[in-house]
Amino acid sequence: MYENKNVQEIRSERKITMSQITKDTIIGDILDIDETTVPIFMSIGMHCLGCPASRGETVEQACMVHGVDPDELVKMVNEHLEKNGK
C-alpha cells in the first residue's frame, strides 16, 4: 500500500494531526509529526526513543511499561503540538 512513498506522502495520506493524538497513536508517528516532543517523553522516563521497538509502540503501551498515566501524556503532547502549530 505504501511502497515507493516517502514519510511525508504517507503522513499526508494518513492526515496525522495533533487532534488525532490518542492513547492508540504510535510513538514514532508523534515523533515524525514533531521531533520537539522528545523532551516530553524523556521527562517521564521514556529514554528509549531511538529504539525501533519503542517507536512502534502506542502511547498507552509505552505508558504501561513506564508507569505513566496515558491520558496525562496525551494531554501534554497535544498541548505541545497545539502551541507549536502542528
Can you identify the CATH superfamily? SP0561-like
Supply the CATH class.
Mainly Alpha
Poorly predicted runs are none
Succession of helices and strands: HHHHHH
Mean pLDDT across all amino acids: 82
**Number of domains as seen in the coordinates:** 1
- Provide the structure class: mainly alpha
State the end-to-end CA separation. Answer: 26 Å
User: What Rg do the Cα atoms give?
Assistant: 13 Å
Give the strand content. under 5%
CATH fold group: SP0561-like
Q: How many runs of DSSP E, i.e. beta strands?
A: 0
Number of helices: 6
Overall shape: it is globular
Q: Which architecture would the CATH scheme give at its second level?
A: Orthogonal Bundle
Biggest β-sheet strands, sense, barrel: none
As a percent range, the share of helical residues equals: 40-55%
